[in-house]
Amino acid sequence: MKRLVLLLFLFTETILAQNIELDTSHTFQRIHSFGASDCWSMQMVGKYYPIAKRNQIAEFLFSKEMDQNGNPKGIGLSMWRFNIGTGSTEQGIESKITNEWRRAECFLNNGKYDWTKQAGQQWFLDAAKKYGVENKLGFLNSAPASMSKNGLAIGSGEIGDWNFNRSEIDHFTTFLADVSSRLELDYISPFNEPQWDWGPKNESGFGSQEGTSIGNDEIAWATRKIDQKFRSNGIKTKITLSEAGQINYLYASKTNRSATKQDNQIQDFFDQKSKNYLGDLNSVEKIIAGHSYFTTSPANELTKTRESLLEKVKEYQLDYWQSEYCVLGDNAGEINGNRMDLGMETAMYVAKIIHADLTIAHASAWHWWLSVSANDYKDGLIYISNKGIMGENDTNKYSGDLMDSKTLWTLGNYSRFVRPNMQRVKVSLANPDVLISAYKGINEVIVVLINQESSKAVEIPKVWENQQVNAYITSEKNNLSHQKPDKTRIDLLPKSVTTLVISKD
After folding, report:
1. Per-residue pLDDT for 13 more than 60?
2. Do 97 and 206 form a contact (C-beta atoms < 8 A)?
3. For the chain, how big is the Rg over CA atoms in Å?
4. Are the C-beta atoms of 186 and 137 separated by less than 8 Å?
5. Which of 392, 419, 446 is the last residue of a domain?
6. N or C: which end of the chain has fewer CB within 10 A?
7. Beta strands 319-324 and 238-239: pairing type?
């Protein structure tokens, strides 16, 4: 009787395992990169923290090595985003930015370069290069303060008002060319989140960080000037546009930024009939970049905005980069961006967003915001605090405890294994509680499964006659932990992200 019960149990388990339908001949976008930025903490951490802690952070972010048990030591980012500062640090409190962590040094001062500036950020840029991170991008929130209209790195507070002295354009383009060359950047993004004003928030005249609003006409004019400078100086760095603050500003023409001519950017910059056409410039990468903020909840908004974006991206034959995201706001009650969360709640939400951006919007790149955060927000992959005290303050400036989050390792379920030049392929699974995507390389196929609810079993697809299968799991008790599954099936843990690496034997 016991044997019969056991056989029935095994038979039931086999029936419950669902089949993954995989078609590697049906391809979608080619993957460019997974990345994160060095704002704002890295200028402090990279300059002041003990070398052992810096090395640990670099390993978490950049390493592609495995430990003795086959577990990844890091998430193997393939893009590192370097914030090119504008000189508000040198201005101190006169910069009108209260928080020194939100100020940034500038390499150019009084017409001369000082390449020792931004030392903390340069430490991590060098670490990224040593680890073999494939892509390096520099981005600006503002032109150098010395080239702005108000002499500051913050804007006027008026949407659409570009805080830049146009007579300084040659100095600006030379600055971008020199910095790109010196830092060996693959890409440069000159205009970050142009739809936001970044100016004073009250009568005090103080702003929260470096930044300026800018309209499409000015972006087009300046980009042509940058391209001209890059070509004349032999700069190979590619210009990326437009880092829109919300993805609907990329494709929609009737938004709250229409009056200031800051929306419909895909058509404006890549339609040959547009006066702002930039698609023929040699230095401009044929991509459009946007940020997934404020378009991720509820579920119909998540889907609708990305479907609309994909339609426009396909029309103009561009690649799309999701170039900045963290959890902000209340997200229609689904999750609140306040309060740090090292656990799976935030990780599962972020996994859903990554999946949507890759499978609905066909993003070829996906980049997180703060690689290291001192804040009590859901904005970091790694957090720092000193004896439990959080914040961008002197307590955490010189050293602190390092806390890796489940969001870090969940991003690693993609970034560590879905490498540049892999292609997304068609895959499906009948159970709607499991989000699934797949990617093929030369001798391996990567399948990422996001199990949103209780335990489930799935059949491992047969890609090659002789194949090896390894699984890497992030869950409540696992940080991208290695598992050698049965050759034909794997059990998915509740609220987990599992990456299957199916390689040719």
Report:
1. no
2. yes
3. 23
4. yes
5. 419
6. N
7. unpaired
Nearest to 406 by CA among 328, 482, 342: 342
> Which among 141, 138, 132 is positioned nearest to 61, based on CA atoms?
132
Q: What is the pLDDT of residues 95-146, one digit of tens each?
A: 999 999 999 999 999 999 999 999 999 999 999 999 999 999 999 999 999 9
Q: Give the N- to C-terminal CA distance of the chain in Å, as an integer.
A: 41
Interatomic CA distance for residues 392 and 57, integer angstroms: 18
- State which residues form the domain around 76: 33-419
- The pTM assigned to this predicted structure is 0.96
Q: Are 139 and 82 in contact (CB under 8 A)?
A: yes
- Residues 51-63 have pLDDT tens digits of 999 999 999 999 9
CATH number of the domain where residue 405 is located: 3.20.20.80
**Would you say residue 5 lies in a domain?**
no
* CA distances from residue 65 to 23, 362, 409 in whole angstroms, order as listed: 30, 28, 14
Strand partners, 478: 475
Query: And the tokens for 400?
Result: 């602190």
Q: In the prediction, which pLDDT does 8 show?
A: 36
Q: How far apart are CA 323 and CA 482, in angstroms?
A: 29
Residue 185 backbone phi and psi in degrees, to 5: -80, 140
User: Within 13 Å and on the Cβ side, how many CA atoms surround 278?
Assistant: 31
